Structures are given as structure tokens and as C-alpha cells.
Amino acid sequence: MTSMRTVVLLGGRSEIGLEVGERLVRQGAGTVVLAARRHADLDAEDGR
Questions:
Q1: Is residue 48 part of a domain?
Q2: Structural domain tally of the chain?
């Protein structure tokens, strides 16, 4: 995979979204931004 700096992941709170985000970090993404419809959905994943 080519070098990535920042990735915005829509639907990031779903199980699939979380797995994709973690995989992107392992493959070199510097920053992964999770986006969801409701802020409360992301509170549990903050700082992960």
C-alpha cells in the first residue's frame, strides 16, 4: 500500500468500519478520522 497521511472513514463506528480503520493504521495511515451520524456513537472509540 502506498503511504497515507490522513484517512477519513465514514461509518467508522460499525464493526466493519473499526476493523478497516485499525487495518489502515497497521498499513501506514498516519491518522484515521472516524465519522458517524451521532457523536455519542464515537465516544467509546475516542483515543483508540
A1: no
A2: 1
- The SS3 of residue 28 is coil
> What distance lies between CA 14 and its chain's CA centroid?
10
Supply the range of the domain harboring residue 24: 6-36
Question: Can you give the pTM of this predicted structure?
Answer: 0.65
Helix (H) / strand (E) element for 32: namely strand 31-35
28: left (phi over 0), alpha (psi -120 to 50) or beta: left
Query: Per DSSP, what are the bridge partners of residue 9?
Result: 34
Reported as a single tens digit per residue, the pLDDT across 12-41 is 788 898 899 999 999 988 899 988 877 666
